[in-house]
Specification:
One of its GO terms (biological process) is carbohydrate transport. InterPro entries: MFS_2, MFS_trans_sf. This is Major facilitator superfamily domain-containing protein 12-like isoform X1. Belongs to the major facilitator superfamily. It contains 17 helices and no strands. By secondary structure, it is an all-alpha fold. It is globular.
């Protein structure tokens, strides 16, 4: 289904001209003679710009709760509150960054600022704070340890939001061509998957190379420290290459030279340049698109957070499987994501963004049903790997397709791209944080009372996200068809 998301009555008449001229405009912005190969290299270099964020996100969602609960021995509700704090700060920073990034300085300048904030804080999140050993100075730890990590999380999440929004806003700044936007979105997701694979592979290597243990315990704090320092080194190198090599040259729209005839031809383009954010806020499609993105991200985030905790829960029943399972299973999950994101790169425009989203949500729902019906504590490990592959496939398809729908919504309004992305991602941060906080709040203090708690989380919380995504897509399709069927005045 082809939908002109970002079009208004005034820009429909010029859209074809923009599409016809976009390849010529891109070629004029590229200084080297072998233009086609240079453009492809620039597209791939674009993916490096978010790699440090992706490395941090994989570590944050997959191992933050595990580190806080199993290593620092925080209560589950306090650890959940730490994650909620991070999501709330991220959500509040997102629209502010969107407004400021569209008005002041360049996208790359904002991007570099965010990278520096992340660099200064992220490694410290997985290093035990001074005098924070369990069973020592308990009253001191009750306020000092949460306060210390809360400050780090606040600064880290502000930097993370700056990098995310500025990097997303680069896509509509480069081109109006929907095919190239979809390609850049797929490349960005492929870079995210590769980054996450690196995190899980490094974690697996560290857990295997160091003193072996059947489950995670407080003395394993140095393992998380080593992993965080290694991925920080990789992330710093990636954004240095991005800022040195990647050249952001926004596409240029035709300008009026003052002649009467030409000013009339360029009037629609001048209207596009002056369009206000109120135009988008009045569009129901903006909120429908936000729901698609929110539920795809919620499924992805809850899977990342609770798959390692589910595996740690399983190790209490089957300790012989080894603690490296918390790294090898997410590794399989992301290999599956990488494969499907690669397939989407060239095929998503053929099948349509909405159809792709439905397929991804359906695969996600099947994985949750599989966990509920077949993955008991005694189930074979091979089934867990198969379910992980299914989770990875569903996550890849829904995330890429939802971002493509958002890029379509922006259309030619690239000068407001950062703000639109911030609106779409705002609810995602809050919903994810609230969901994790609620899940941790209802967790039993005694594991014996609810031995399969996290299995239920993967079944009902993740499955509910997939169902809500399908419902949001259905509402979007129905409303779009209804608006298209109305006679135009």
């Amino acid at each position: 289904m082809n939908v002109t998301y970002g079009a208004t009555k005034s820009n429909v008449s010029v859209k074809n001209d923009i599409q016809d001229n976009i390849d010529e405009e891109i070629d004029r912005s590229i200084p080297y003679r072998p233009r086609r190969w240079w453009r492809i290299n620039q597209n791939h270099l674009y993916g490096l710009g978010h790699m440090y964020n992706d490395l941090c996100a994989a570590m944050w969602f997959s191992y933050m709760l595990l580190f806080f609960q199993a290593v620092l021995e925080m209560r589950a509700v306090v650890a959940g509150a730490m994650l909620l704090l991070g999501q709330v700060v991220d959500a509040l920073a997102t629209p502010i960054v969107g407004i400021l990034a569209d008005k002041y300085s360049t996208k790359k300048a904002w991007h570099l600022t965010g990278c520096l904030l992340v660099t200064c804080t992220f490694p410290l999140l997985f290093i035990r704070c001074r005098n924070c050993w369990p069973n020592k100075n308990s009253e001191y730890l009750m306020w000092w340890m949460p306060l210390y990590y809360a400050i780090l999380i606040t600064i880290f999440q502000i930097g993370w939001a700056v990098v995310q929004i500025s990097h997303l806003a680069i896509i509509p700044s480069i081109t109006d061509n929907l095919h190239i936007r979809s390609e850049l979105t797929s490349i960005r997701y492929m870079a995210s998957v590769i980054s996450s694979l690196a995190v899980y592979f490094i974690t697996w290597i560290v857990l295997r190379a160091t003193n072996y243990s059947t489950f995670i315990r407080p003395t394993d704090d140095y393992k998380f420290r080593d992993v965080s320092l290694i991925i920080s080194g990789i992330g710093i190198l990636s954004y240095i290459i991005f800022h040195v090599v990647f050249k952001l040259k926004p596409h240029k729209q035709p300008k009026s030279n003052g002649h009467a005839g030409e000013s009339g031809e360029n009037e629609p383009l001048n209207f596009l340049a002056k369009s206000k954010i109120m135009h988008f806020l009045q569009m129901p499609l903006l909120y429908q698109t936000s729901c698609l993105y929110v539920f795809s991200r919620l499924y992805w985030a809850l899977s990342l957070v609770y798959v390692p905790l589910f595996l740690e829960e399983r190790l209490s029943v089957n300790p012989t499987e080894g603690s490296e399972l918390v790294a090898s299973v997410p590794l399989v999950l992301y290999i599956s994501s990488l494969i499907f994101s690669f397939l989407l790169k060239s095929n998503i425009n053929k099948i349509g963004h909405q159809v792709a989203y439905f397929i991804g949500s359906f695969l996600s729902l099947i994985s949750c049903m599989w966990i509920a019906l077949a993955i008991s504590p005694e189930a074979n490990v091979a089934q867990i790997y198969l379910v992980a592959a299914l989770i990875g496939a569903g996550s890849a398809i829904t995330l890429v397709s939802s971002l493509c729908v958002t890029a379509d919504l922006i259309g030619p309004h690239s000068h407001q791209g950062a703000l639109i992305y911030s609106i779409v991602t705002f609810a995602d941060k809050l919903v994810t944080g609230i969901a994790v906080m609620a899940i941790e709040n209802y967790k039993c203090d005694d594991a014996i009372s609810c031995p399969q708690y996290y299995r239920g989380v993967l079944t009902y919380a993740c499955g509910g996200s997939a169902v809500l995504g399908i419902l949001s897509l259905s509402i979007t399709i129905i409303s779009t068809n209804h608006s298209k069927s109305k006679p135009q005045t």
